[in-house]
Each structure stands twice: as structure tokens, then as C-alpha cells.
């Protein structure tokens, strides 16, 4: 079943499954069971973060699944309080320890944090050290805009493999996605259904009814056909399976245009140019 998910080549040759399972806001005490269910459904790409507090649960689920670790693509993200070089390196060690793994498939800077006194360029250079160690297969960023990426291009050696940003029909992000593509950076879409807000839109509902699909499947398929990596989240096995069933239908060109045309610049999360939250 997992083989039905296509992969995308990152700029260093690593292959990432285009559909994954997100663990944002999955309670730590429930994470192992929820991720176990996702793996049973067929997901082979799990997205977590230090900030989520549930890396141990992800690691437990992977370990008890009986699936070869090499078959599961695991992503995590550096927490906002660890942007200094030494802090970042120690945080990465903790992530590996919590996941119970000696390597990570993808590690991201979670936020650029423009207002703090540690520049993300220093953080990225620490990420380059992690990559050079061979303990992470690819490194990338999350919530970076064109000007953040431009600084990395100018001041560091390794180009990010991924930029994980908020994308959904109400925030299509076409310009940033195009910029990522021009620089061989894969776009990952978080909040892919805008926390459910897009599912009641008449255009989404009409397409879903015509295709005999759910609104969520239609929106997730829109992401897939645009070439982004997407990782919906659910605690329900039925919904997990529904979100996984995206590869036996296609949207028409007019459907894609209609969904992209819903863009109204509406975020469900913070603006990367002003967000400076550091967990206490």
C-alpha cells in the first residue's frame, strides 16, 4: 500500500515521499499509538518537530512497527530556542536520542525568527555541520521567504533541500513556490486544508461531489498535482485512510485553476517576517 505514494527527488538525490503524516498538536502521550496507526494505514513519511514535544512517541511507533527504518522517512525541526550553533548541535543530538535513531532523514530550521539576536545564518551553518556528519540525509528550512533564502544563498555553502511553508487554496503561495522551484528547493505544505476552513467552500464541495470524493481528498490532491509534499494529520484511522487515498483519481485542469483561484492571502498561522516566539 505504501508503494502507491510517489517520491520526489531532493536536490542532493535523496527521495522524499510526497504524502506524509503530520504530528502537529498530537499529544505526546498519544503519539505512539496515533503514528502506529498511520504506519499501519500505509504512511511511510512522518513529520514531527522538537517544538511538538512528541518525538519520543514517533520513535516508539517506528521501533515497534516492525518496518525497516530505511523504509520510513522521518522529518523533525529545530526548536526556536536553540538557534546558536552549540545549542543547535545539542538539540539535534537530543532529537536523535528521543527518536531512538542514529540518523534523521530531514532536519529543518523551524522558523527564521527575524527579531532575535541569533541570526539564522549561524543556525544554518550548524545545520551544514550536522549534514557533514552524515547523521542527517538532508537539511532544509521551514517558513522561510524569498529574502530569507536569498541570504542563505549568499552567505552559506549548502542550499536547503526543502522549504516547509503554509500552503492551501486560501494561501496558494505561488510566488514563493516558484522561487523555491527555481532554486531546486522542494515545497512542503503545512496546514494543507487551512485547518478545515477550505472544506466548506462551494467550489471545493462542487468538485468533490462531481468526483465522488471528499472535500479533503480534493484539496490534498490539488497539492499533489502542484508538486508539493503534503502531510495531513488525523487521529482517526478512517480519516487517515481517506487522506491516503489520493492516487487513484486526478483533477481536471479547470479544477486546479479554480482551487488556486480561491487564494486570498489568508494565513492560519503566523507571518514568518514577524513571528519571534521562543518556547518558555
CATH topology label: TIM Barrel
Q: Major β-sheet, in short?
A: 8 strands, parallel
Share of helix among residues? 25-40%
Helix count?
A: 10
Number of domains: 1
N→C terminal distance: 41 Å
Rounded mean pLDDT score: 97
Strand content: 5-15%
What is the element string, with H for helices and E for strands?
EEEHEHEHEHEHEHEHHEHH
Q: Architecture, CATH level 2?
A: Alpha-Beta Barrel
Task: Count the E strands.
Answer: 10
Protein name: Aldo/keto reductase
Binding site for substrate: 110
InterPro entries: AKR, Aldo/ket_reductase_CS, NAD(P)_OxRdtase_dom_sf, NADP_OxRdtase_dom
Site (Lowers pKa of active site Tyr): 77
Account of the 3D structure:
The chain is α/β, with parallel strands linked by helices and 280 residues long. It has one domain: Alpha-Beta Barrel (TIM Barrel). 39% of the residues lie in helices and 13% in strands. The chain contains 10 helices and 10 strands. The N and C termini lie far apart (41 Å). Keywords: NADP, Oxidoreductase. Pfam families: Aldo_ket_red (PF00248).
At a glance:
The chain is an alpha/beta fold.
How do the helices and strands line up, and which of them pair or pack?
Blueprint: E1 7-9, E2 15-17, E3 21-22, H1 28-41, E4 45-47, H2 55-64, E5 73-78, H3 85-99, E6 106-109, H4 120-132, E7 139-142, H5 146-155, E8 162-166, H6 174-182, E9 186-190, H7 202-211, H8 215-226, E10 229-230, H9 237-244, H10 253-260
Parallel strand pairs: 3-4, 4-5, 5-6, 6-7, 7-8, 8-9, 9-10
Antiparallel strand pairs: 1-2
Helix pairs in contact: 1-2, 2-3, 3-4, 7-8
